[in-house]
Design goal:
- The protein is about 45% helix and about 15% strand.
- The chain is built from 24 helices and 22 strands.
Length: about 675
């Protein structure tokens, strides 16, 4: 037998070629000039001889597929089976592209089949040809299709109509369901159908452990079919006798509802499953006019669009949640009877689909998540950048190609930091600034604006920490004034100074180094925590005002870090702390991902604990307050050298390890 195949390099086409190559005969494949390299690679992969798998230059959008007359003449009367698979399978593609590929392409294929007197024309349609028919759509139904307003549904319906009305050769029509990866390898060539929801499943896995029950939506039935089964069924039915002029539904005879499908893939991806699924049809009692009005409200529309954009879900996919159509499969089952081609259970191969997606198709794999991709040639301002966290951050962003601007009070420290960064090949500019002095802040902002055009990223890292119980601070109101002046007013002054130009350019990122103490309500740090909490609150308010202007605010609730700021407290030598480099990695994460908040699990847990059981949490923290005493300096005892201070007891070390990173 001799075959002609359009769409041979496509997803279904590649698998069909594997089946056809097991039979005898030459296979002609329509290939555009631009895709010859792809075809040659496919031929090599299949191990096919050049005389067995032959490329025919052409174009789906041209009359008679753009095939040269001499080529048509050479194939005339020789083609036993003409497989037309080429089409545009994309719900979100523009109308012109879909009309050209699906409608015009099918008409041109029918022309060629007639010109070369093909034995049988095999048209691979889609269940989309039924539109949104409410109920069971039989294989002998066509004109009954409803809900064809979607351009993809309409073009698939009309292309099938062309075969039925214009094809003079014997023909057979196949309507596959939503074709997913191979049940044997998981291989898939693009994100489609349920794959659009994999990002949401992955995000749930990152946020929650797999045993946590969740609530989700239930909807219509998703008819998923693995590509290897589709190719096997297509190959078998095409070669069976006396089946011309019939249509075959290559679908799952018992499709699952969308909620069950998501749970199967959640299980495959080790993500939490939806223990309770709310059927979207229950909202049908709300009048359509009311639903339409609510969906058109600007806040609702923005939230929905943001959600879909963040997870890479086309809006057209959401229409399929309540997919109303079931498909009868009697003709297909009758044709496959005795063939040993069995429909595989999704549960048996879902893990292969997930694994292939996570390794090859996950959009996160193709996003530039390098630090250099975010900061190269950008102006990054780091306050307190001559020691500790700030210095480590400055070194990392400078190495990534940023123009780093470091400000601090000490001239010698600034010079040393600048020399080290430049010795490593980075660019660094330094400024002496007293961030507790608002006039100094204003002067700094003006210089950066005049000399560097403002800041692209502002990292408010400089801060003052005071560890002293409130009872020891009755006569030390200046402790609260000093921390507030630097940690809040100084940072706020810089934000207010750099924001106008960021807003003008519609881009910018402000990162505030806060404290885990804001989440844990750390005792003995009331002055420090309250100043950081003020900055946190400002950021939350600012996010609401600048969300639509391309400006991001990120708060990092930093755990305890081994820096000069905590050196006076000898006890911290024995408790778990981050190194400045590890802390800088959290800042790098914030620069790359631009989240609203970066916090450790301990910090998030403490916040949840306090929200759920504030009295119990209060007891825990009071126990810690009594367990960790004030330092001699905090008690006003002078002349005690650091080496004379008492180290941490075993109880203190154990408690600190339990609540890792919390200030005590």
């Amino acid at each position: 037998m001799t075959y002609f195949v359009t769409g041979a390099t496509g997803f279904i086409g590649r698998h069909l070629l594997e089946k056809l190559l097991l039979r005898k005969g030459k296979i002609y494949c329509l290939v555009r000039k631009e895709s010859l390299g792809k075809f040659e690679a496919l031929r090599e992969r299949l191990g096919a001889d050049k005389d067995r798998l032959v490329a025919v230059n052409g174009d789906l959008g041209k009359a008679r597929l753009g095939i040269a007359p001499a080529s048509l003449k050479s194939m005339s009367g020789k083609i036993s089976h003409f497989f037309h698979l080429a089409a545009l399978y994309d719900l979100s593609a523009d109308e012109a592209s879909q009309v050209s590929a699906n409608i015009d392409g099918t008409r041109h294929a029918v022309q060629v089949a007639e010109a070369i007197k093909a034995g049988c024309f095999h048209h691979v349609s889609s269940i989309a040809a039924a539109g949104l028919y409410p109920g069971v759509f039989r294989e002998d139904m066509f004109e009954e299709a409803e809900g064809l307003d979607n351009v993809y549904f309409r073009t698939k319906h009309e292309s099938e109509g062309i075969v039925r009305k214009e094809c003079k050769r014997p023909f057979r029509i196949y309507r596959p369901g939503i074709v997913i990866g191979s049940s044997k390898t998981g291989e898939m060539d693009k994100i489609d159908g349920p794959y659009y929801l994999f990002g949401l499943i992955k995000r749930m896995r990152e946020v929650l452990p797999p045993w946590v029950p969740t609530v989700g939506l239930e909807g219509g039935r998703l008819n998923l079919v693995p590509v290897d089964w589709v190719a096997a069924a297509l190959d078998h039915i095409a070669h069976a006798a006396k089946l011309d002029s019939r249509c075959f539904h290559l679908v799952d005879p018992a499709p699952r509802r969308i909620g069950e499908v998501l749970n199967i893939f959640a299980d495959a991806g080790h993500a939490p499953k939806m223990s309770m699924r709310i059927d979207a049809r229950m909202f049908a009692f709300v009048p359509s006019a009311v639903r339409q009005a609510l969906s058109n409200l600007p806040p609702v529309r923005r939230m929905v669009n943001t959600f879909l954009r963040d997870f890479g879900i086309p809006s057209e996919v959401m229409r399929m949640i309540n997919y109303p159509t079931r498909f009868d499969t009697r003709e297909c089952e009758r044709a496959l009877r005795g063939s040993k081609i069995k429909f595989p259970d999704l549960k048996s191969y879902a893990w292969r689909i997930w694994d292939y997606w996570e390794r090859h198709l996950d959009p996160a794999l193709f996003v530039d998540r390098s630090l250099s991709g975010k900061v190269r040639r950008k102006v990054v301002v780091v306050t307190g950048g001559t020691s500790g966290i700030g210095r480590a951050v400055a070194m990392k962003v400078a190495a990534a190609g940023a123009k780093v601007i470091v400000c601090a009070r000490g001239a010698d420290e600034l010079a040393a930091t600048k020399a080290e960064i430049e010795a490593a090949g980075g660019t660094c500019h330094t400024y002496r600034v007293d961030l507790a002095d608002l006039a100094s802040c204003d002067e700094f902002v003006a210089k950066v604006g005049a000399e560097h055009g403002g800041a692209d990223i502002l990292i408010n890292n400089a801060g003052r920490s005071i560890r002293r119980a409130i009872a020891s601070s009755y006569d030390r109101f200046h402790d609260f004034e000093r921390t507030m002046q630097l940690n809040y007013f100084g940072s706020l002054r810089l934000i207010m100074g750099f924001l106008p130009r960021m807003a003008e350019r519609h881009r910018g990122h402000i990162i505030n180094i806060s404290s885990i103490g804001v989440l844990t309500n750390a005792p003995r740090f009331s002055a420090y925590v309250s100043s950081k909490a003020a900055l946190d609150a400002f950021s939350r308010c600012a996010q609401a005002e600048f969300s639509d202007q391309g400006i991001n605010f990120t708060t990092i609730n930093m755990p305890l870090v081994k820096t000069p700021m905590i050196a006076p407290t000898k006890m911290y030598d024995s408790v778990p702390t981050l190194s400045p480099e590890e802390a800088a990695d959290l800042v790098v994460e914030a620069i790359i991902e631009r989240p609203v908040r970066v916090a450790t699990r301990t910090g998030v847990f403490a916040q949840l604990f306090y929200a759920i059981a504030p009295r119990a949490y209060e007891i825990v923290m009071n126990t810690a307050f009594r367990l960790f005493p004030d330092s001699p300096a905090a008690k006003g005892i002078k002349g005690v050298r650091q080496e004379q201070q008492q180290g941490a007891s075993s109880e203190q070390v154990a408690f600190a390890a339990l609540m890792r990173g919390v200030h005590w």
